[in-house]
Amino acid sequence: MQKFKKYIPAILWMILIFYMSSRPTDVIALPSTQRFLFFKSLHLIEYAILFIFVQFAIKKNSLSMAISYFYAITDEFHQSFIPGRSGQFSDTLIDLIGILIGLIILKIFRHRR
Questions:
Q1: Under a CB-based contact definition with an 8 Å cutoff, are residues 62 and 12 in contact?
Q2: Closest CA to 107 of 69, 41, 55
Q3: Domain-located, residue 58
Q4: Does residue 26 fall inside a structural domain?
Q5: Please, which pLDDT band fits residue 80 given cuts at 50, 70 and 90?
Q6: Among 16-25, 41-50, 68-77, 89-98, which stretch is predicted with the lowest mean pLDDT?
Q7: Burial of 17 (0-12, 13-18, 19+ CB in 10 A)
Q8: 87 backbone φψ class: left, alpha, beta (φ>0; ψ -120 to 50)
Q9: How many domains does the chain have?
Q10: The domain containing residue 82 runs over which residues?
Q11: What is the pTM of this model?
Q12: CA 59 to chain centre
């Protein structure tokens, strides 16, 4: 049971990502540039956090990155079935940048310790 506990943050975060991906985005009225920046920033943040949570559980950079990116791909696939949403491969690349940001944050944090 103790070993499972370290997976809980990543699993809960994945559930939150799935839930938010199931919601329509057309209710957020912003000018097009602000809308683009807002949603792409969310991608960066949510996948940086996901990577950090997965890394906390697994402790292997390459496997944590692979799991996080695989989840990004499945999330975009899931969005392709949601009315008002679309799954876009380009969004998975933004997610990958978020994953790399999470890796950099962890490296900086570990270096300072």
A1: no
A2: 55
A3: yes
A4: no
A5: very high
A6: 16-25
A7: buried
A8: beta
A9: 1
A10: 2-20+31-112
A11: 0.93
A12: 18
Specify the pLDDT at position 1.
74
Q: List, for residues 4-63, the tens digit of each pLDDT value.
A: 999 999 999 999 999 999 998 877 788 989 989 999 999 999 999 999 999 999 999 999
Evaluated on CA atoms 63, 68, 72, 75, the torsion sign reads positive
Helices (H), 6-88: 8-21, 32-58, 61-79
Name residue, tokens 């079935």: 81
Number of CB atoms found within 10 A of residue 108's CB: 10
Residue indicated by tokens 């791909």: 73
Establish if 16 belongs to a structural domain: yes
**Closest-CA residue to 4 (of 71, 52, 57):** 57
pLDDT at position 84 is: 82
Closest CA to 54 of 93, 109, 9: 9
**Three-class SS state of 85:** coil
Mean pLDDT for the stretch of residues 62-90? 95
